[in-house]
Write a structure and sequence with these properties.
The chain is an alpha/beta fold and about 260 residues long. Helices cover about 40% and strands about 15% of the residues. The chain is built from 10 helices and 7 strands. The strands form 2 sheets. It has a 5-stranded parallel beta sheet with strand order 3-2-1-4-5, with helices on both faces. Strands 6-7 form a two-stranded antiparallel sheet. β2, α4 and β3 form a beta-alpha-beta unit. α3 runs antiparallel to α8 and α5 packs across α6. The radius of gyration is 17 Å and the shape is globular.
């Protein structure tokens, strides 16, 4: 898949976040009919988790991160962009002000999960496709800080339907291949634009972690920290919530999914 013809970006463009997308009830019916999924529990001592925007890692794999931390795994979360473009044209917050708010939100969310702060790279939101060399260098440097500790990479999916997500996924995949490190990927927007049994989704590579009740509750509490994303900034149309209930329903399940 090339950067100028990403399958999932084309699909995402036809199903904007303001649309309902695939209902969670439809996904749940399909999960039940399809039967159990293989378990996911990374057997590593260090897990480096990559997010394109400040909330991706919590929404996608907050439970995986918290569960790994409780097992004694060192969890290092890295957020590449500053999240400043979530509300273009907002009359309430400038992009710079929004970036400050989103940085504080992701730190609050990781603290609720019992994790250390996400590493904040501050690259421009919406610019990651043009900064893949920098992203690879960041991933490489983070991964090689502790060369003697078995590690793995967990990234937002390289075909998720958002250009920033896909740029991060491509970079992580290249670094993992170059260094011989396992790579897993978590979808976010796929659940919005895809359909059950979509033939272009590699379902056979999917694994799941069923969340303990306390981990699931902690994740739900952590997501509430993202006030700029789950609540309107003001009544103005430009300040509408990015993560409406129809989107959160698909990301606050009792399990999380990754591609191997």
């Amino acid at each position: 898949m090339t950067t100028d013809d990403p399958m999932s970006t084309r699909r995402f463009g036809s199903t904007p976040t303001s649309a309902d997308g695939t209902p969670e009830s439809e996904w749940q019916e399909w999960f039940a009919a399809r039967g159990p999924w293989p378990d996911f529990e990374p057997d590593v001592r260090r897990l480096v988790v990559l997010a394109a925007h400040p909330d991706d890692e919590i929404l996608g794999v907050g439970g995986v991160m918290a569960s790994a931390h409780r097992r004694g795994v060192e969890v290092v979360a890295v957020c590449l962009s500053d999240g400043s473009a979530s509300h273009p044209g907002s009359p309430t917050l400038s992009p710079a002000e929004l970036a400050v708010r989103r940085h504080a939100e992701v730190d609050a969310a990781t603290a609720i999960l019992g994790l250390g702060p996400t590493r904040w790279c501050g690259l421009g939101d919406g610019t990651l496709v043009s900064r893949e060399d920098e992203i690879e260098a960041i991933v490489d440097a983070t991964l090689t800080e502790t060369p003697d500790i078995p590690a793995a990479l967990l990234s937002v999916w390289a075909h998720d339907g958002h250009p920033d997500h896909e740029a991060v996924g491509r970079c992580v995949r290249r670094v993992g291949a170059r260094l011989g490190v396992p790579v897993w990927m978590y979808p976010i927007w796929m659940w919005h634009w895809a359909k059950p049994d979509d033939p272009e989704i590699p379902w056979e590579r999917m694994r799941t972690l069923v969340l303990d009740d306390d981990v699931a509750a902690a994740k739900r509490a952590a997501v509430q920290a993202f006030e700029t994303q789950i609540h309107p900034l003001s009544p103005a149309p430009e300040d509408a919530a990015v993560l409406g209930p129809h989107i959160l329903d698909r990301l606050l399940r009792d399990r999380e999914f990754v591609f191997g």
